[in-house]
Amino acid sequence: MRLISRCSQRVATLFLIMCSVLGMGVANVQAAETEESEQSAGPGFYTDDFQILPEIQLTTLYNDNVYATSTDELSDTILILTPLLKINSRWEKHRLRFEAGANLGRYQEYTTEDYDDYWIDASGNYELSPATSLFGSAGYARKHESRDSKDSNQSGEEPTPYSVTSLQLGGRHTLGDTVLRAVASYEKLDFDNVPGLYNDDRDRTQNGLGLRVTRELDRQTRVYVQGLLNQRDYVMTMGGVNRDSSGYDAVVGLIRNFGKKDRFEAYAGVLSQDYEDSAFKRFTTADFGLKLRWYPAETYKVTGNLNRSLRETTEQGSSGYLLTKLDLQLEKTFSADFLGYISYTYGFYDYQGIGRKDDYNGLTLGLNYSLNRHVLISGSYSYIDNDSNDEILNPVPGDSYDFSQNLFLLSVKARF
Length: 416
Hints:
- 6% of the residues lie in helices and 59% in strands.
- It has an 18-stranded antiparallel beta barrel.
- The longest helix has 21 residues.
């Protein structure tokens, strides 16, 4: 049995390396350090080499504005089935993780909005020595764009399905108090045409390369310098416009641990994108961000994240939009089985070249209750409001990006 266990570990490790080299991966390049999560001793099935975690979730979601419109709002109830399988290695050295799942959404009345999303991902880490390791991930996902998506034209008679094939491959090396981390990524997006909407001109590949150098000043403090390069290549022009571009993002940052589990990170720098088409000007702006994990009291937890990113768009005349986003959440643990939270999201969408600006606000109140170690019950209420100046720029009656939504959710998750 020990011989079989050793062989299975070697085969799985070899499989990880092959997947990383051949190229099926994750979405975006990140040169940042990631925190390793401890293996759970909870539900699941165990072998000498792997922890197997199957689960299934059933969600009922009521949305009072299914199409995210400013007038003539239509409501519906959506039933979402989410099967999920996770497999984690239990080796002393190296790591391999696998995940496959789906979100199957069915509307009670507006059945043209039904969707079948699914994904499969593999990731892992191979230690060459105590100071050097290789890591990689590979994946494929089938998704859909919801009606409130800002990345596309939502005039289609059905939601737009699309697929994402991606790869990430990198390495990490420690030199005394300095850590070097390099990452390369590849992502291919393929959008389907739907009645009333042509999407083939949105198909593209996105390549990235990142390098991060982190220096430990003491046991609680680290500083880093990070640089990211990206290349976005479209299969064809969109409305006669070439949206191919290349850019970079360079920042310096500070990570500070305080208390037992508290953590704070801040960074600042510059991001820039240069477009092939002369109709779009080169865009350069400040980049900054904050990350917070804070336990102000024994039963409270505060998390926060502030960041900026330059996104693609189908908005005519615009090269893209700069998204400045803030996420805050306060959690309160009432008992070992009962947790409540309140979260707030603010997004400022600044469309380049056309003057459109959107303010997005989202507020959620939620409760999670563990009936036992296998069953989790969750409920939440969310209010979403999007306020855009598009009516001032293009005063077409009934054609506005302003909308609000009330969402009521109830779900039951079973972990085996």
